[in-house]
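User: Reviewer 2 asked us to show a designed sequence for the structure in our supplementary figure. I'm pasting the structure tokens here. Could you produce the per-position amino acids so we can include them in the response letter?
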């Protein structure tokens, strides 16, 4: 059983499907060429479907699942330090957390996450202004990917590797196209 975010009211319990989980995990491993060198953070609560992705992707790749301390989960400055210290290569987060991380990075003299290669964003709308702020601070070395999929599909079914962004700051980053073998 997985729980929806509750964005339309109270969270609902959904019966997840192993087939949807397996489909997404194998897609992600292939799409991002993940291997034993990946170090992926577990930031989501275990009641949300994305926690399954964060757990099984690094383990099936032969990589490392990295679990932050409670302090790092709760404070953006501690999370940034933790991401750097444990050499995270890929993380998944909601745009609201992404905005907190950007604000923390903007406040630092040096903003550097040398091992981070990719951030997967999902769960809320991602705005052009978020991507612009990130790129002002961090440049374009770290890939940003927007994902979409309701809990009912057991993980994301659409993705968009962010290159160009909408002209207006309030423009929403596209959801992209279906992942392999979906319609």
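Assistant: Here is a per-position design you can include in the supplement:
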């Amino acid at each position: 059983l997985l729980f929806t975010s509750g964005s339309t009211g109270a969270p609902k319990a959904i019966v997840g499907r192993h087939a949807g989980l397996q489909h997404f995990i194998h897609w992600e491993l292939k799409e991002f060429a993940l291997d034993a060198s990946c170090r992926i953070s577990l930031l989501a609560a275990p009641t949300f479907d994305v926690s399954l992705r964060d757990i099984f992707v690094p383990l099936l790749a032969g990589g490392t699942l990295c679990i932050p301390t409670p302090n790092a989960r709760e404070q953006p400055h501690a999370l940034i330090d933790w991401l750097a210290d444990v050499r995270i290569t890929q993380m998944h987060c909601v745009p609201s957390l992404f905005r907190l991380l950007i604000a923390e990075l903007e406040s630092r003299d040096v903003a550097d996450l040398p091992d981070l290669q990719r951030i997967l964003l999902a769960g809320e709308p991602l705005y052009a202004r978020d991507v612009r702020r990130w790129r002002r601070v961090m440049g374009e070395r770290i890939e940003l990917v927007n994902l979409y999929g309701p809990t009912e599909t057991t993980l994301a079914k659409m993705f968009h590797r962010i290159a160009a962004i909408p002209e207006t700051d309030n423009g929403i980053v596209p959801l992209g196209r279906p992942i392999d073998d979906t319609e």
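For the response letter, you might also mention the following. Helices lie at 18-31, 49-61, 70-74, 76-85, 95-106, 128-138. The first strand starts at residue 2 and ends at 3.
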